[in-house]
Design a protein that fits this description.
single chain; Nitrilase/N-carbamoyl-D-aminoacid amidohydrolase; eight-stranded mixed β-sheet; six-stranded mixed β-sheet; about 25% strand; globular; binds 2-oxoglutaric acid; C-N_Hydrolase_sf; hydrolase; C-N_Hydrolase; Carbon-nitrogen hydrolase
Amino acid sequence: MVMSKFTQPPSLKPFKLALIQLGNISATKSDNIKHAREMILKAAFAKPDLIVLPECFNSPYGHVHFPVYAEKIAFKPGEPYDIGKSESESVKMLSSAAKECSTWLIGGSIPERDANSDNVYNTCTVYNPQGELIAYHRKVHLFDIDIPGKIKFKESETLTGGTTLNFFDTDFARIGLGICYDIRFPELAMISARQGCQILIYPGAFNMTTGPLHWELLQRGRAVDNQLFFSMCSPARDTTAVYHAWGHSMVVDPMGKVLCKAEEGEQIIYTDIDPQVFEEARAGIPITKQRRFDVYPDVSVAN
Ligand SMILES: O=C(O)CCC(=O)C(=O)O
């Protein structure tokens, strides 16, 4: 299902974004949740408007782990969610941390077990400053790759791909969601942009093979193609883990300039989003008004 009806986005306002490149992700879920909470509170000292966690923050990254760490969330888009009745300890922590810090929070992703089936998803949840769970995104494109001698990974062994594209509105921006491998499919970013998103945020965890060549290139590409801000938030690299994350969480502006970038280790990075850059990029290079749908079809139109 594709988002279809266009609604007017809020106008983009200046805001401060914090990315938590979380480290110490261990086999003990409760420790991971506790550490994530501590880091959210730490990030909140600088008074960001929005805090972001990385992909798979409560579990080691690997298809064998997803069903073991999966939690039932049972979120229904458009319907109020009762945190008190949630079966997910990760959701409860994220909600209370967002409320305590009075900030928007993109809760990275966690393995999620569907409430009505045995399907497991890689799911991102979003909280407003009141701690309400208001949006989610189930990773649409599963990370199945095989580069001989380098890396083989098959999320589809245990995960099911999501079937919806998702964004949410704050008082400072419309924000589009994706998770990691979703970035390789430009259609998703393009559709979010046409839906009025001014910034796209994808929790992610690239690796030591694809990270060096593609992590920054893809983010700058998506940012320039769509003339919007783009950000990915990674876990820190842990060379004792089976999966070595690339790290280098970053934020890119609509001209493709990297505004901030982490190294490999645990780190919180901040950036101030400036709407002027967004407006000047679109005014100066007016591709949003120059498309030739008489020559090629508009593939962003809902099916
Ligand atoms: O696309 C890539 O190279 C990495 C993707 C990935 O690590 C993921 O989807 O979790």
